[in-house]
């Protein structure tokens, strides 16, 4: 009887199986990364929508005659704080590579003197602009490095700063509202 060398056949099968498993694992890793980016974007946009939605609600609850109120000389008024967030949205968006809407100059929004309805509409438009831009970013876009106030950061990091900026000024508006006996609508 002829003796068959099972050892070399076994090794070849093991090597082939290992390569197939490695290839499958690599493919799954790429898929998981894309899903993870999508999940992070979805989660960010949900939190951002909650924050900016509360800001819009609060801006609507604050009476027009309080829009020029400021806690001290040299500090932003209610109107300026609302428009500062809109301005920041447009400014951060342009840094992220989003095309700026025609006629919008983030440098002049804060001091534009808009009335209450105009300020709220401008805030809402700036939020829609940011959300649309972020939704259209690819996973690779989030990893692109940009100059961000003299620091090299990824666009992903800049997006998180944009969200933090909105949350910071929501807190400011809550303090402004409560200082003027206005309760945030979601807390009543």
Automatic annotation (TrEMBL):
Keyword Transcription belongs to the record: no
Keywords: Signal
Signal peptide: 1-32
Xref: SUPFAM superfamilies: DinB/YfiT-like putative metalloenzymes
InterPro entries in the cross-refs: DinB-like, DinB/YfiT-like
Residue ranges of domain DinB-like in the record: 50-173
Keyword Signal included in the entry's annotation: yes
One Pfam family this sequence matches: DinB_2
Name this protein carries in UniProt: DinB family protein
Record organism: Halalkalibaculum roseum
């Amino acid at each position: 009887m002829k003796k068959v060398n099972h050892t070399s056949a076994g090794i070849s099968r093991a090597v082939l199986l290992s390569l197939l498993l490695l290839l499958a694992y690599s493919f799954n890793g790429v898929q998981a990364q894309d899903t993870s980016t999508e999940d992070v974007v979805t989660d960010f946009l949900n939190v951002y929508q909650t924050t900016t939605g509360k800001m819009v609600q609060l801006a609507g609850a604050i009476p027009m005659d309080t829009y020029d109120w400021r806690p001290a000389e040299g500090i932003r008024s209610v109107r300026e704080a609302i428009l500062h967030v809109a301005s920041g949205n447009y400014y951060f968006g342009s840094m992220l590579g989003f095309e700026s809407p025609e006629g919008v100059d983030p440098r002049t929004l804060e001091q534009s003197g808009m009335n209450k309805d105009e300020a709220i509409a401008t805030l809402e438009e700036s939020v829609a602009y940011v959300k649309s831009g972020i939704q259209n970013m690819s996973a690779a876009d989030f990893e692109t490095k940009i100059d961000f106030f003299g620091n090299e950061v990824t666009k992903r990091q800049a997006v998180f700063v944009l969200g933090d900026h909105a949350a910071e000024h929501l807190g400011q508006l809550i303090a402004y509202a409560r200082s003027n006996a206005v309760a945030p609508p979601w807390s009543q």
